[in-house]
Each structure stands twice: as structure tokens, then as C-alpha cells.
């Protein structure tokens, strides 16, 4: 480095975690398919604290509540609070927008665009009111187009609830994102997109499409068995996804699950 020219300050790697499908209820002992969801989330949060002590952002990608109650979202804020990092939420098919907005008032929890280091994180709302499947409204596609067009020099991570590609389970693929083609038309115009992450499927998924990672994550409560024609739960522990976003646009990621804890579940799909 020639004299008189300052050494550039390196941009640190960003540390993110994704928690998804927490399915909290107003009742403290509220359960989904026999599993108390506040209890299972507690163990996942403790695992995150042990394994990712320094976080830049927490992504909560939908089905945050099972009953859509204000109390469930208030508890989510409290339970994720010990992670001591900014949070971003998006709704899933089980969520109630008005209750989320009430709890998120005067915060950045529902902010759709966040710039961190060399990256832009864009959170989309794929909820289709009254439906289990997802849909990105024209306003959401416009938001995505604008957010990407305004920052071509920032790498992009896109987050939402519903899966835009088949994950190999017929019953789940029937209730994914209905207008995935419109989503990919936008993404394909912007080569800075490095990854797309979602929830909804309660299982791990990792593929590549045109240089971008396509990532699904386990639930913090019950898990779905991959590759099934019909609803079936997996006897796997709750977990979360970690993401490292590097300054050069590279991304490292993986899934960690709770260990040493026994969970009992009810295989009856009517409980979901």
C-alpha cells in the first residue's frame, strides 16, 4: 500500500439465523400435534445462543403463530429477545397480519428491506388470505424489483414463507407459491441475488438455481417427513438454519437441531 493511502477497512462476515414455523399459541402450554411449541422454541433459542453467540440479524419466516393471537406474537418477541439481534418477520398462512402489525408497531420487525455490509436482505409477504398456498401480490413483486434495481452492487438474500420450487412431497408441493414463475422472472433480471430462503415445509432443503441457493429450513417445533405423497411427520428434533454472508458474495449455511431432549408428537394431521 503506497504511503499516505489508508488501508481499506475489511467488511466483516455477517452472521444470520433463520427460525421458522414456530406455531406459537396464546396459551403458555399451547401445543401443535402434541408438541408444546413455546417449549420447543425455548430449546432452539438456547441452541442458537450456544452456537451463534454474535448475530447480525434473526429471520423469522412465517407461521410464527398457530392461532393468530396478539399474545402469541408478544411471546415470540420475548422469547427471541435473548438473541440480542435485530429481527425481521414475514407472515405465513397461519399468521394474522393485523395482530403481527400491532405487536410490531414502532419497530423494524416488518421492514421489508435491510442493508447490512455488502448485502441487502429483502423480506417478502407470500400470504394469500384464506388460503394455505402462497401468492406474491403485484405490490410484493414491485417491491422486490425496486429493491434489487436500487442496489445492483449489493448481494441479495430473499426471504419469504412459501416454497417456490417443488421439494419432493406431493401434499406440500400442492400448497407452495402459486406464482413462482413471476418471482423468478424478477430474480433472473438481477444477478446479485445469491440466495432465497423460506419456511412452510418444516424440513431441510438445499439446491441451486442459476447460481443462487434455494434453502428451506426445519421448524422450531414439529418436522415433516421429506418425500411423502401425504402428510407425515418426521421423528426429527426442532432446529434452525445459520447463514454466513461473506463480503465477496459467498454464502455458507447449515442446519442445527436440538439434541438430548425427547419430544413426543401426534401423527394425526387434523391437529395441524
TrEMBL record:
<dbReference type="InterPro" id="IPR004843">
    <property type="entry name" value="Calcineurin-like_PHP"/>
</dbReference>
<feature type="domain" description="Calcineurin-like phosphoesterase">
    <location>
        <begin position="16"/>
        <end position="203"/>
    </location>
</feature>
<dbReference type="InterPro" id="IPR026575">
    <property type="entry name" value="GpdQ/CpdA-like"/>
</dbReference>
<dbReference type="InterPro" id="IPR029052">
    <property type="entry name" value="Metallo-depent_PP-like"/>
</dbReference>
<keyword id="KW-0479">Metal-binding</keyword>
<keyword id="KW-0408">Iron</keyword>
<dbReference type="GO" id="GO:0004112">
    <property type="term" value="F:cyclic-nucleotide phosphodiesterase activity"/>
</dbReference>
<dbReference type="Pfam" id="PF00149">
    <property type="entry name" value="Metallophos"/>
</dbReference>
<dbReference type="InterPro" id="IPR050884">
    <property type="entry name" value="CNP_phosphodiesterase-III"/>
</dbReference>
<comment type="similarity">
    <text>Belongs to the cyclic nucleotide phosphodiesterase class-III family.</text>
</comment>
<dbReference type="GO" id="GO:0046872">
    <property type="term" value="F:metal ion binding"/>
</dbReference>
<protein>
    <submittedName>
        <fullName>Icc protein</fullName>
    </submittedName>
</protein>
<keyword id="KW-0378">Hydrolase</keyword>
